[in-house]
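thought: user wants a sequence for this fold. calling inverse folding tool.
action: design(structure=
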């Protein structure tokens, strides 16, 4: 069983009258890669700064290895931080940048021997794939290499926890993907707990053992990447993690949900009879079929080519859904769709219900989203799903 290393207990953070963290409770295990994920202003960086000691919570407690550390300053915590801006010393070479912290006097008044410094710097440069770069000026390095220098400098002091505040934000997409793999490898090799902050869902899903989704200063869901993606707790999580079609439904009975006046088999249970629910259908879980075979039929209104697949917007009598498919259906064509029971996820109604419309997406290119409040007349409905 993993050992708990950090705990935030009922932590509230307020600036004047504005609450940016609302009594959050969170624990982080030793050797875990945990990501705080959410949009700008959700409270993720504030949470990181509280863990690092850069901010003291207005109320609540922070524990490290069972000891309350609210009043312990950052330099006395066994925690280091890597920021988006690398803050490297341009007048020093790679070796001296990494060795800088080791040359400082320790709390016990002693200094490390030169041989110990050399050994530790060379070892950590090997871990971050910079062996042979010791004498290079940091100004001659690429963005990814400079980021690895910053990570090496943070790790060489052998902290128990490394905090990373959107460290890949300044890199291009290809380099970001490469660094995602490297960061995960570094974390596994060193066995150090990583607490990572990002607004990038792909980064969170690719690297993390645990993802903490935040919004409005509140933790919305904690889970593995698979749990967060496949079993979102509310409409915000479903919308923020990947692409989602979120529609109103009625839970007719266990394993049977009503959408658009027709019944679909699902795997969900435990709801009240005819309870109003939110229904999430991921774009990749929708199969395009001919109109006669379709559970629903609609009209293609927009197509975006993504290389491997197409993003297709389909209008179902005023409700627009996103379908991701390798099959091209021309704009204006009528299509049918089929959804297997395991492609339907049912959620209880909550504070975020109805906030994202029928097809919710943060992508600016999908600005033709329909109003989720459209009312259907009985004659609009076709025959339901045969059970």
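)
observation: tool returned 387 residues.
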């Amino acid at each position: 069983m993993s050992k708990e290393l950090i705990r935030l207990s009922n932590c509230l953070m307020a600036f004047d009258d504005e609450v940016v963290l609302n009594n959050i409770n969170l624990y982080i295990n030793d050797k875990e890669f945990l990501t705080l994920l959410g949009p700008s202003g959700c409270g993720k960086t504030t949470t990181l700064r509280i863990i690092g000691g850069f901010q003291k919570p207005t109320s609540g407690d922070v524990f490290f290895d069972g000891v309350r550390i609210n009043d312990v300053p950052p330099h006395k915590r066994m925690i280091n931080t890597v920021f988006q801006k690398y803050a490297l010393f341009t007048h020093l070479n790679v070796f001296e940048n990494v060795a800088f912290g080791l040359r400082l006097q320790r709390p016990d008044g002693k200094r490390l021997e030169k041989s110990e410094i050399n050994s530790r710097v060379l070892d950590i440069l090997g871990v971050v794939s910079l062996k042979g770069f010791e004498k290079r000026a940091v100004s001659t390095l690429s963005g990814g290499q400079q980021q690895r220098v910053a990570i090496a400098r943070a790790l060489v002091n052998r902290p128990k926890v490394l905090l990373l505040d959107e460290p890949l934000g300044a890199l291009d997409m290809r380099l970001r993907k490469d660094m995602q793999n490297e960061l995960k490898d570094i974390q596994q090799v060193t066995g150090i707990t990583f607490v990572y902050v990002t607004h990038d869902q792909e980064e969170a899903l690719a690297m993390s053992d645990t993802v903490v989704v935040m919004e409005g200063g509140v933790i919305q869901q904690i889970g593995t990447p698979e749990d967060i993606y496949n079993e979102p707790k509310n409409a915000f999580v479903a919308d923020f993690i990947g692409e989602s079609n979120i529609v109103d439904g009625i839970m007719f009975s266990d394993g049977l949900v009503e959408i658009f006046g027709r019944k679909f088999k699902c795997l969900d249970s435990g709801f009240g009879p005819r309870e109003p629910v939110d229904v999430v259908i991921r774009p990749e879980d929708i199969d395009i079929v001919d109109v006669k075979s379709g559970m629903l039929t609609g009209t293609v209104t927009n197509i975006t080519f993504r290389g491997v697949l197409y993003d297709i917007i389909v209008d179902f009598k005023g409700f627009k859904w996103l379908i991701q498919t390798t099959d091209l259906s021309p704009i204006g064509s009528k299509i049918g769709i089929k959804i297997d029971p395991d492609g339907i996820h049912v959620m209880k109604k909550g504070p975020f219900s109805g906030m994202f419309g029928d097809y919710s997406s943060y992508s600016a290119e999908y600005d033709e989203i329909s109003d989720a409040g459209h009312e259907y007349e009985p004659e609009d409905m076709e025959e339901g799903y045969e059970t």
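thought: summarizing for user.
answer: Here is the designed sequence. The first strand starts at residue 4 and ends at 15.
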